[in-house]
Amino acid sequence: MDTANPCGIRGIAFTEFCGPDLGQLERLFLAFGFSKLHRHPARDIVHFRQNDIHFLLNGEREGHSADFARAHGPAISAMGWLVDDAEAALATAVARGAEAVPAAAKDHAYPAVWGIGGSVLYFIEVGVDVYARDFVPLDQPIVQQDKGFLVVDHLTNNVPIGGREQWAAFYKDIFGFTEVRYFDIQGAKTGLTSYALRSPDGSFCIPINQPKDEKDQIAEYLREYRGPGVQHLAFLTEDILASLDALRGSGIETLEIDDAYYEEVFERVPGVREDRARIREHQVLVDGDADGYLLQIFTRNFIGPIFIEIIQRAEHLGFGEGNFGALFRSLEKDQERRGVL
Ligand SMILES: [Fe+2]
């Protein structure tokens, strides 16, 4: 066993969604440029794909995902992680404190443990083609030109006050994630603290957000989602401006950024090679340091309180900490509009 990577994690295999309105989720996936390709022959589960991002849409009316949709509304009910050996990953995870999911609670015949907020975390062996093995091609697939989204760069968990240590320990002690960053962010009226953890193979990160008070956006999420869960998924693109051009007319809305933001950002991050007028026009956020930078943008709440981030990295491994102030102001404005603050 690799002591630094005890469960042999190699990346994210899929993210599974459920909810009361599957049509709405399907429209969002298609708007983002996913292709609709396969269905499960025995269960109401459909597979969408864009490059190495695989989404499953679970419409089962009984069982875990149905219960999950009733409890949370539109939600992420399961995730698959790629591992070297699925049975060994399960045995190791359980030996290190995870709890195995019984067969009756699973919609896929892969070993699994309980994850954040009672979601299911499946172990999928590298090289196993889930869609060729367990699914069949749709009679009428919807094949689309992709919009440049390559892989899930990171996913963020929201947990209640006091939950951060518990969930950081889950990822660190069981799976060998390591802490890469700690933030303490203060907006004008609200704030949050966050730990960022990196998977032991380095392929993705899980920042964990904890609210500072009952009014901030994390607390609002926890009320709406009715528990801890995934706050956002970040899609990696190599050309965020081209991806945003491709999203034009899709109806996907991103957060508005103050014009004032662009008056100083290129001084703060001077090395940006992309067209600055187009960055401003698309309201893309910029962050970085002497070694590199990243470009990022956030959708409005997208699936219940879950949103999507789009990120392009140029030799920079952060999460946009330098933008959190600007972003918080934008989110606070949004909360004010909705009467929460
Ligand atoms: Fe993020």
From TrEMBL:
EC annotation from Swiss-Prot or TrEMBL: 1.13.11.27
Keyword Transmembrane: no
CDD domains: HPPD_C_like
UniProt keyword terms in alphabetical order: Dioxygenase, Iron, Metal-binding, Oxidoreductase, Repeat
VOC domain mapped to chain residues: 11-126, 151-300
GO molecular-function term, one example from the UniProt record: 4-hydroxyphenylpyruvate dioxygenase activity
PROSITE patterns: VOC
Enzyme class: oxidoreductase
Cofactor(s) listed in the protein's UniProt record: Fe cation
InterPro entries documented for this protein: 4OHPhenylPyrv_dOase, 4OHPhenylPyrv_dOase_C, Glyas_Bleomycin-R_OHBP_Dase, Glyas_Fos-R_dOase_dom, VOC_core
Highest taxon of the lineage: Bacteria
Family: Belongs to the 4HPPD family.
Name of the protein described by the UniProt record: 4-hydroxyphenylpyruvate dioxygenase
Origin species: Lysobacter brunescens
Gene name, Swiss-Prot/TrEMBL: hppD
